[in-house]
Structures are given as structure tokens and as C-alpha cells.
Write a structure and sequence with these properties.
This protein has about 350 residues and is an alpha/beta fold. About 30% of the residues lie in helices and about 30% in strands. The two termini are about 20 Å apart. Bound molecules: zinc ion (ZN) (2 copies). One zinc ion (ZN) binds next to helix 4.
């Protein structure tokens, strides 16, 4: 497709990004489709790209580039090596672009590919009118899944992958952190049949939303000791599983201590550096199983997400924070940094 488009571009190393009206519409490669973007969501990663922290500086060597990776839209052009999709298909995008030939890819773990590229980080993304989508990363939206919901699926998938690893059915689960992913985790725990969902955060308005997503109990960790509160809520035993979305060292340690012996801890949130943990007392003697998740299983977790979206009583509406036009992206970033709850969407 010829012509220019509007989009948000990371122009050069350093803080900031630029709204442009003169970006070339991406050429559709043989192994790609061109997606007309209907909605994109803003991720913590986009804040890192805007603010240019070490993580972003280490990965983004190809500026200028359109960023943004949580998105949904419709196919408007198809590369010649792409099969199984048609113009007009409604899709979302898996962010992890696999190489398809490393050990991980060959053993059904493409989401942790050794040579992984990232849509909207190392490769052009979706804060624009059009985005090029690699054929391995196309996800068809289920019937009844709106583009706005579709734009939230990538983030939801990271959380749902954590819920899958925590094996929550019939369990008492602690969910630490009630930002957009934590809210979706709470809802997914419910859909997966958790017996009791205990959500914690430091902001009352986020805890309210967690209740709307199905949390049975909410705890403000500024006011209440998490470990004691979880024990009280579980008849003294402790939680069977804990899912951390905060990445905060103190919250992680509290989560470990709130588990019963033999419980399972899953980290979804990323600490920004090393954190001190007493392995002997908090993990080894208590036989805690601890794992992390990176992205979503391709594509089992996406299927799981589509199913959760259809489950009775589940709604993403409480997670929806606000809708902004592309040229309002700085207002959306400011809202997130100001602690506004829910996911912020950019609508081209
Ligand atoms: Zn993201
Ligand atoms: Zn690979």
C-alpha cells in the first residue's frame, strides 16, 4: 500500500517520542500481513521506551521506529508466503517473534525463543494507522471480541499465562498488584475456578476494580500486613498459590511468606534489579515452587484468553482505563504515570 500515515515514533535515543503525520505506510513483506490498526493499548514497556531506560536502550537499535505492541485490527494486505488468512480478518498480535529454528522453538516453547525479536520494540509496531505483522504472530480474534478487547489480549495473556502456571483451580490465590494485568489475573483466576481470590494493592480505587473483577477479598498493603491478612483469610494455612504482578521486592517476599508450605509462587511482574530473598527460610524449608512467565504460550494461552472472554460473568470493562487519539498519547502516558487505574487505549 502506498502513502503516508499518522503514528507515534521513537525518533532518537533519549526521553520522548513524536506524533508524526508523514510516516510511510509499511511495505508488506512476503512473510507479513499489513494490519489496519483499530485500537492499541499502552504497556509499561511503552513507558520504558518513552522514558528510555536501560532496558529500552539495550534493545532498540533501529530508530526511528513506530512502537506499541498491544493491538488489534483488520488485515488489509497479505504477503505471498502467508496462508490461512484473508483480507478483512480481525486479528491481534503476539509480541514475541520466534526464529522457528532454535532449541526452544523446536520444543514448543517459541515464546521464549533464543533469538526472539519483539513486535513494537525491535521491529515496527502499532501506535499508528497501519502495522506490519509477521505471519507467526497473527492471532485471529474470536467472534464477539471487539478490537478494544483485542488490544488488551497480549497483556491479558501474560497474566493468564501466570494463572495457568499457578494452577489455581480449587485454590486460595493471592494476586499482588491490581494494575491492568493484575485485574485481568483476578478475573482469569475466577474463570479458572479458584476457590478464593485475595487481591492486594496500595491504591483503594484499584482494589475496588479488583472486586469488580471477582476478587473475594481485597487488602491494602499500605495499611495491612499481607502475610497476616492472608493467613486470616485462609483459616491460618496461607495461600495455595501467589501471583505477583508488582515486580516489587517487598511484595514478592510478602507473597512467598503468605504461601502455605508447598505452595506455588509465579512472578509475572519484573523487578528492576536484584532483590534480597531468604532462600532457606522462605523457599527451601517450605518447599515453595517458584517460577516466572515470559509472554504467552504460542498459542495455547491465546486460546485460553479467548475462552475466558466468553466465560459467564467475565468482563474487561472494569479494566478499560481511557481512550485517547494517537496525538493524545502524551496525555495517556501522563494518566498512567499519575496512577490512573485501568488500561489506556490509543484509537487511530
Ligand atoms: Zn505489553
Ligand atoms: Zn527460536
Amino acid at each position: 500500500m502506498e502513502g503516508t500515515m499518522r503514528g507515534v515514533c521513537k525518533m532518537a535515543p533519549g526521553k520522548g517520542a513524536e506524533y508524526r503525520t508523514d510516516l510511510p505506510i509499511p511495505q508488506t513483506g512476503d512473510d507479513e500481513v499489513l494490519m489496519k490498526v483499530h485500537a492499541s493499548a499502552i504497556c509499561g514497556t511503552d513507558l520504558h521506551i518513552y522514558g528510555w531506560n536501560e532496558w529500552a536502550a539495550n534493545r532498540m537499535k533501529n530508530l526511528p521506529i513506530v512502537f506499541g505492541h498491544e493491538t488489534a485490527g483488520e488485515i488489509v494486505e497479505i504477503g505471498k508466503n502467508v496462508t490461512g488468512f484473508q483480507v478483512g480478518d480481525r486479528i491481534s498480535v503476539e509480541t514475541h517473534i520466534p526464529c522457528n529454528h532454535c532449541f526452544q522453538c523446536e520444543n514448543d516453547r517459541r515464546h521464549i525463543c533464543e533469538n526472539m525479536k519483539l513486535f513494537g520494540v525491535t521491529e515496527p509496531g502499532a501506535f499508528a494507522e497501519y502495522a506490519p505483522v509477521p505471519k507467526d504472530c497473527i492471532v485471529r480474534l474470536g467472534d464477539g471480541v471487539s478490537y478494544e478487547m483485542g488490544a488488551m489480549l497480549e497483556a491479558m495473556g501474560a497474566g493468564v499465562h501466570g494463572v495457568e502456571k499457578a494452577e489455581v483451580r480449587g485454590k486460595a490465590v493471592l494476586v499482588s498488584g491490581c494494575g491492568p494485568i493484575g485485574l485481568m489475573v483476578a478475573g482469569a483466576c475466577k474463570a479458572h475456578g479458584a476457590r478464593r481470590i485475595i487481591a492486594c494493592d496500595i491504591l483503594p480505587e484499584k482494589l475496588k476494580l479488583a472486586e469488580a473483577m471477582g476478587a473475594d477479598v481485597t487488602i491494602n498493603s499500605m495499611e495491612t500486613d499481607i502475610v497476616q491478612a492472608v493467613r486470616r483469610e485462609t483459616g491460618g494455612a496461607g495461600a495455595d498459590a501467589a501471583i505477583d504482578i508488582t515486580g516489587n521486592g517487598r511484595a514478592i517476599v510478602a507473597g512467598l511468606r503468605a504461601l502455605r508450605k508447598g505452595g506455588r509462587m509465579v512472578s509475572v511482574g519484573l523487578p528492576s534489579g536484584e532483590i534480597p530473598v531468604n532462600l532457606t527460610e522462605d523457599i527451601i524449608y517450605r518447599e515453595i515452587q517458584y517460577t516466572g512467565v515470559s509472554g504467552r504460550q504460542m498459542f495455547a494461552t491465546w486460546d485460553d484468553c479467548m475462552e475466558i472472554l466468553q466465560s459467564p460473568g467475565f468482563s474487561l470493562e472494569p479494566v478499560m482505563g481511557g481512550r485517547y487519539p494517537l496525538d493524545g498519547f502524551e496525555d495517556a502516558l501522563a494518566a498512567i504515570q499519575g496512577g490512573a487505574p485501568g488500561k489506556m487505549l490509543l484509537i487511530p
